[in-house]
């Protein structure tokens, strides 16, 4: 019997990148909330949206839901993210 061990690491390393500049606050900013589509994210993100608007002074909250919770975000979501100042992604069961 032969046992084959696979190495899942990427041998060439990560491509170089630069972190986005930090925000000095969220007041007046556009914040996106990306849900995985599971039921548990609905009440959590609803409460988070209320708090961001009322207590933090966020200018606008955009809620988007992935079509498949186990797959990467669809292109429509990736296209929308470029217009946001900050984003939160959440999962819920």
Give the tags.
single chain, 93 residues, alpha/beta, 2 helices
In short:
The chain is of the alpha/beta class and 93 residues long. The chain contains 2 helices and 3 strands.
Number of helices: 2
What's the rounded overall pLDDT mean? 92
How would you classify the helix and strand content by structural class? Answer: alpha/beta
Number of DSSP strands?
Answer: 3
Report the sheet with the most strands, covering strand number, pairing sense and barrel closure. 3 strands, parallel
| Shape, principal axes of CA atoms | extended
Using only CA atoms, what is the Rg? 18 Å
Q: What's the end-to-end separation, in Å?
A: 41 Å
Return residue spans where pLDDT drops below 50 for at least 5 consecutive residues. Answer: none
Strand numbers in spatial order across the main sheet: 2-1-3
Order of helices and strands: EHEHE
Strand fraction equals 15-25%
Helix content: 10-25%
Task: Describe the 3D structure.
- By secondary structure, the chain is an alpha/beta fold.
- Helix content is 25%, strand content 18%.
- The protein has a domain at 30-90.
- The chain contains two helices and three strands, in the order E-H-E-H-E.
- A three-stranded parallel sheet has the order 2-1-3, covered by helices on one side.
- The chain starts with 29 loop residues before the first strand and ends with a strand.
- The model has no long low-confidence stretch (mean pLDDT 92).
Give the topology.
Elements: E1 30-35, H1 41-56, E2 60-65, H2 75-81, E3 86-90
Parallel strand pairs: 1-2, 1-3
